[in-house]
Design a protein that fits this description.
This protein has 109 residues and is an all-alpha fold. 72% of the residues lie in helices and 0% in strands.
Length: 109
């Protein structure tokens, strides 16, 4: 039982290392193919490309775990809308539009 867990952990670690290596080379090659010629910037080494990848992840993606269930607020909102009466739903949707016309309904003459 323990050898199976250790084997799986090693496989996951190898997969992560392979993925990080490939992404590092992809970022490096794309940067070096585009940025020096477009903007006159310096070329990157592999380690600089990995640093840039981590920096972009921090700025734009964060390091939170992604759940497969979608955004939690979306599920709560769906439950709240299901509990409302049709009149309450229409009032809520009107308030969310902020005076804009609905996209899914035709304009009345």
């Amino acid at each position: 039982m323990h050898s199976h867990k250790a084997e799986r952990a090693i496989k996951i670690l190898l997969f992560i290392l392979l993925t990080v290596t490939v992404l590092g080379f992809v970022v490096k090659e794309l940067w070096n193919a585009l940025m020096p010629q477009l903007f006159g910037w310096h070329t990157l080494t592999f380690w600089q490309a990995l640093g840039l990848l981590v920096l972009a992840k921090i700025f734009f993606g964060g390091f939170h775990r992604h759940s497969g269930g979608g955004a939690p607020w979306r599920n709560r909102m769906k439950q709240r809308l299901e509990q409302m009466t049709p009149e309450e739903r229409d009032r809520f949707r009107q308030g969310m539009r902020c005076g804009r016309r609905p996209v899914d309904r035709p304009v009345e003459p």
